[in-house]
Amino acid sequence: MQRLGRVTRRSARWLNRPVRRVHSEAKPGPEPAGGISTAFLALPIMLTSGLCCWQVCRYSWKVDLIAEREKRFHQPPLDLDSMEPVRREIEARELASCRVRVEVEPDPGRFAFIGPRGPPAGTKGGSNAATTTTGFLVIQPCTTPSGRRLLVNRGWVPRDLRENGEVMQHIIEHPLVCGVVKVSDQPNAIIADMIATSEESETVAVKNYMWRDVISMAKHFGTEPLCVDVVADGDSSVERHAKEMYLPNGKLVPIVPDLEPYMAVRVTPTTHAQYAATWFTLTVCGTIMAVRTRKGLTKSLFRGA
Question: Which residue among 14, 90, 148, 241 has the highest number of C-beta atoms inside a 10 angstrom radius?
Fold first, then answer.
């Protein structure tokens, strides 16, 4: 009986002891990011998407620009002498890249040289920077039969012919000019800082320019702010050497380009398309990161979770 009582008391103590419950605690989920992190990622997304749209617009504009130039070049040359005189540069820009023809009489002994610069495309050695001969564009002020005065770009000549004076003595002066209307170039910052601000007297017959400044040349020679570049006719695939510039009668014929360089643009539509694709890719990546950050999944972004 005593043994039975001891077993009963032990069983009662075992039943009455406190039960240790094990509670399974759930792992906390990812905490969503705050508004500051989302706004911080939204700024680059807005920037890259805006740049993407801008490059798409630039691509469309450049395609239309090239189509307009090709349309102008395939039209018959305009008779420049029968058109209204050009008094302002904005009027000259309306004729830019148009093919024209006009009879001119150059001013004797008056020239403007633009350079130094490389030879036109198609000149032998023009693609090798180590052997390319630098030279100048020869600009002449001319008068038309109706009394209009304009500038004519006769073409490119090597530096040595410019320095020894052979250009001014032996250049051939065709009375009929067939070419393309060109306006002023945009100089880079380095050239703009090097240009002197002082103006020379209009009596100076020969003047040098580092870039095509049609406005300054027109003021100096008393012409319209209009420059006509003489272009090559016939087979443009024939290459000329810088030393092969003289006719049998000893007259100097400057090297002139064909129409292809005038149809080219500095930044092609393909480049704009590549820029647009780059900004679009960055926009997509930024959007994915912003969404995952908003859901608190940024830490597991590169771990495949």
Answer: 148
